[in-house]
Amino acid sequence: MLKFALFHEDGLPPWRPAGARWASGSSWVEPFRHPALEDFAATDGISSFVAVRERAASSPALGTTDLMVLTTADYAALKTQLLGSATEFFLVERDEYGDYHVHAGQWGTAPVYVVQGRDHVRGSWAYGDLRQHMRFDQLHHLTVTRILAGRHRYAVDTLFEPVKQITERMTADFDQVKGLTLHYPEAALHATPRDVRDGVDIVKVYERELASAVQLWSIEPERTAVELSGGMDSANVAMTLAALYPGSIRSYALTLGGEVGEQQARRRQAMIDFAGFRDFQVSALDWPPLHPNGGRVHGDPLNPPDEPYYEAVEQMLATAADRGITTVYTGDGGDELVALRGQEWQRSGRVPGRLNPYSSPPDWLGPRAAGLLDQVDQHLAPTSVINEATHLGFACRTPQFMTAGIWPLSPLCSPRLIRFGEQLPVEWRLDKSITRERLRHLGFSEDVVHPRLRENFVHVMERGLVDYGVPLVDEYLTESPLVDLGFVNPDRLRDVRNAVADGKIDTRLFGYLRLELGLRGLLG
Q1: What is the CA 293 to chain-centroid distance, rounded?
Q2: Is domain 202-339+387-456 annotated with CATH 3.40.50.620?
Q3: φ and ψ at 519, to 5 degrees?
Q4: Which stretches make up the Asparagine synthetase domain (predicted)?
Q5: Euclidean distance between CA atoms 352 and 336, whole angstroms
Q6: What integer pLDDT is reported at residue 95 of this predicted model?
Q7: Taking 70 as the threshold, does the pLDDT of residue 58 lie above it?
Q8: Domain at 2-183, CATH homologous superfamily
């Protein structure tokens, strides 16, 4: 949501508007300016802050181009209001001693990375902005291992030791004695399943809670779209939007192609006809991962865990922006909203699948990475309000939206809706039963509610690896620092590469390639 540079200087004035930034001496804060967001600055003559937050439908707008001069009591009240915001926010404050405090909200919609320089602290939602502080000899080995093994974790650490992520509800302090210190919040509390009372229509309750979540924000419907892949999560968000803003919201999707694409197209058309969406599409198979004309291969300074389907999403967002779209509703968080937990998996006879944090690591990990596997769950952020997997997804996707000038909204991550999901009995969460039943109540056919084929992007990933990834493996392994440091076993990786000729594709190969390309884009 913002970028900043903070310096300790004597006699600084309160924050003042300076073009696209708020400035005070050498320090500046640059909010991401967008119709869905507002930013403002306030002072009580002692302390001052700059805040950027999502526009909430229930709160009056405070955005102003002028510094608000308040009494000490009103300043404290406004700060307290912001820290309790129901929507996403960031607040950068300088106190009476000249020390800085950066406060993060609970949503984590956009990541903010921070690094301490010689005499200042820099922060940005774009990881590549901080690449002058990144060196190869400062790789964070545990993060490297997590990326290669596909065991991503939500934590303050990033690919490079000096660069940290401000996680949800965190406070980052920059004082003149200790420098930069990061403070995790208390672990969030979560609810447990409850029985549904007799006579309660739980699907109607879900519909009501989802409508409330969708209406959290103040939006411009004519400039808003919804992701409509055909999955249960985005479909339910889309149907709620269509009912609230009939004829105003547009829809879009990355289309899959092949037999599964035919099913997707048929199901999506049923939804489009029902809702009256104006729709547009981009073929994912035309822009698979590692496409030579995509930004990843071209050397864009991406954080390696960024969107795996970066190339297709890049085309999709450009198409949306050309149509005047500035805000997109997503289905992010839907899997986590109704996921089984703990022993519920075993009792249901299911396995976690995509949400399994302990999936088997690839056998081409080198000795250094293999030796760190038992540490991947160390030094993690405390339990968050929104599921940790969702936060990882936000950090992976949101910067790409912002680069396109678009802000994503994810109502399935509403803390209130999350608490509702946590309290649902297992039978309503299993196989997303409640979301399917809601679509059935709306009159959709079983083809829409329970599609025969599984619709996902695995074949798109396989296309990218076969057509473009394998040649890159040959090129990179001849001079790979990941091999030199013992993170990758080159012989076993070549075996995986050679197996492609026999039709055996291990999509975990992408973990190696995304990291090699990421390092090249960041370090040059």
Answers
A1: 24
A2: yes
A3: -65, -40
A4: 209-349
A5: 11
A6: 95
A7: yes
A8: Aminohydrolase, N-terminal nucleophile (Ntn) domain (3.60.20.10)
